[in-house]
Write a structure and sequence with these properties.
Elements: H1 4-22, E1 47-51, H2 67-71, E2 77-83, E3 89-99, H3 108-112, E4 118-120, E5 136-137, H4 139-142, E6 143-145, H5 146-152, H6 154-181
Parallel strand pairs: 1-6
Antiparallel strand pairs: 1-4, 2-3, 3-5
Helix pairs in contact: 5-6
């Protein structure tokens, strides 16, 4: 019969409308921004940098290896390694910028990072009236403590901390083994002066 599809669709819509008033679990409307959505742990928006300790810049896990910069599909990450007063490279970034107006939130940067320093944030409210200054995030804007990482992704953060602790323990064991097997350099015997 002509129009049965429309009648079936209207019946399903009416059934769901009436059923939603009897079952509060089916009322899915959130009164945003007064009610904040409960985000799942694997939700991702834009990257941030994890730091350990109290000082955000000195405690960054990032070593400026530039792997995330190379792998980023839209090329929105820019890193410059820091140097000391003698010009020697230091294992930390002097400049770490992310243009989130270009970032597509693909999480490739977080996946390729060998030091577990770059992770995906839950912060999604980034609207601004100035895209040239406010949407270019610098190292200071991106640095967030490990406790923040634990608050948004507790399961993943605990696994990462356990992995880093195990790697540190193994490195200390290797260093202790190397120090124990290092042979002391024998002292050179004094040369006897030729007899006159």
């Amino acid at each position: 019969m002509f129009g049965t599809g429309i009648l079936k669709g209207l019946y399903i819509t009416a059934k769901n409308l009436v059923g939603s008033y009897h079952d509060p679990e089916r009322l899915t409307t959130e009164q945003y921004p007064e009610e904040r959505p409960k985000l799942p742990e694997n939700f991702r928006s834009f990257p941030f940098l994890v730091f350990d300790g109290e000082n955000a810049i000195d405690g960054l896990r990032c070593t400026a290896c530039k792997m995330c910069e190379k792998e980023c599909p839209p090329q929105c990450i820019y890193i410059v390694a820091d140097r000391d007063e003698n010009g020697k490279l230091m294992k930390r970034p002097k400049v770490f910028d992310i243009d989130i107006s270009v970032c597509m939130g693909c999480q490739i940067c977080a996946e390729v990072c060998p030091f577990e320093s770059i992770k995906m944030d839950h912060h999604f409210e980034v609207a601004t009236d100035n895209r040239f200054e406010k949407l270019l995030l610098h190292r200071e804007d991106l640095a967030k403590p490990n406790s923040y990482y634990h608050s948004i992704r507790p399961t993943e953060a605990a696994a990462v901390d356990a992995q880093l602790a195990e790697e540190k323990r193994k490195a200390e064991e290797r260093a202790a083994a190397r120090a124990a097997t290092a042979k002391p350099v024998p002292a050179t015997p004094p040369s006897n002066p030729p007899a006159a």
